[in-house]
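#dry-run=false #mode=assembly
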Amino acid sequence: MELSGRHVVVTGGGGGIGGALARRLSQEGAGAVVVADRDPAAAEAVASEIGGLAVQFDAARESGVQALIAQATEASGPIDIFISNAGVPGGMGGPETPDETWQEAWQVNVMAHVWAARALLPAMVDRGEGYLINTASAAGLLTQVSSLVYSVTKHAAVSLAEWLAIEYGDAGVRVSCICPQGVRTPMLELAMDEPAGAAALTAGGVIEPEDVAEAVVRGIADERLLILPHEEVARHMALKGSDPERWIAGMRRLVRNARAGAA
Ligand SMILES: NC(=O)c1ccc[n+]([C@@H]2O[C@H](COP(=O)([O-])OP(=O)(O)OC[C@H]3O[C@@H](n4cnc5c(N)ncnc54)[C@H](O)[C@@H]3O)[C@@H](O)[C@H]2O)c1
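#status=ok
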């Protein structure tokens, strides 16, 4: 899709990857950019830099996503590109993670994308055009060894994007899913506390949020389903698909070596 003149909404736009996306899409000529975040000061700082609209909202509630879409539509008309990028790390560890942490991650990392699609698809189908993008993670294609919650919810976000792309592609709705490995943001700092998680996240090199924005601009131009700012993620996916036993053995080795090295 051509970016010029488009009405774009970026959630989690107050910092990290979302902030870089908002800035870059504005530079690329988007007509209106809405910077949405639960942190109003962060959203305002990015929006004022690019002449966009700051909206405070909570991605963990459907009413929050609906109110954001209503506010953006009232300000600048139908939304052309909605980037559901806000995400939460979901805590370290496995099944022992408390239900409240699971619930928050389901709502922000999965249901926020569902709620956006639910609200936006009818008008996009009527217009025969629209673009839904969510930020999942390489953890949604491979896994994030330090966090079961993050891995499971990001897999769900990838699955959602695939399903929407299959179901709505012929109606003119485009779908992309952004799947980076390590990106230098506050969220990465949290994950670096666990040696195995850090080893997996940094295996492909830590990139900057601006590198993700560059990959997203190219992905939108190509209307690509999977946007992979780290090229090696495609190679790991190919190995996982062709030889899952070897892939699991390699992941176990990575975890063992990282924890032994930290002990
Ligand atoms: N940093 C990485 O290494 C990495 C890698 C892969 C995927 N991701 C994903 O990229 C996305 C952006 O993460 P980031 O690294 O820029 O992290 P970040 O913590 O810098 O930014 C996340 C933003 O989302 C906002 N947010 C969180 N919960 C919200 C809520 N309930 N409602 C509204 N806004 C909310 C935060 O205020 C923040 O501005 C996330 O979905 C994350 O899972 C990050």
